Amino acid sequence: MRISMILAWAGVAMAAPAHAAVTGTSEIGFATENRVEIAADAASLYALLGQPGRWWSGAHTYSGDSANMTIDAHAGGCFCETIPARAGPSGTIEHARVIYAVPGQRLRLSGALGPLQGEGVVGTLDMHITPAGKGVRVTMTYVVGGYLRGGAAAMAPLVDQVLAAQLQGLKRVAESPAP
After folding, report:
1. Options 3.30.980.10, 3.20.20.80, 3.30.530.20, 3.90.1150.10; which CATH number does 2-174 get?
2. Fewer Cβ atoms within 10 A, N terminus or C terminus of the chain?
């Protein structure tokens, strides 16, 4: 399972947002930053953040379907996924825990995402919404620290690429005409 998750994270093929970068690596962790401008108002975009089933890629889930993902956007809330019974038993996974929530401005979560969950690390994912142009700018940073068996420098670009793809998914859904 661990190898397949790493390969899935490595196989991202979506366009990068306006800014994507690994901003630092060391023996004990890494930091990434992705930024994109979105033609939407802050309140609507913040509400959409709480609906990852609409914008997170199903290829980067444990169940294979992002519709099984939710974020309860208040301190202590869960970024969780339900794993329905298919060929095996059903289950659930906590991707992260909400540690800071200010509607229309910021959503911060603590958790080791994807293949990092099997490592000895902690991560802080911060999504900051600020006014920009005819909408908002979303800056997504992810800071990870701890022990990574494959090394932080090797994992950082893969994680950055996956998070950039999720931010592009958020932009695509936020700017799509309402059905």
Report:
1. 3.30.530.20
2. C
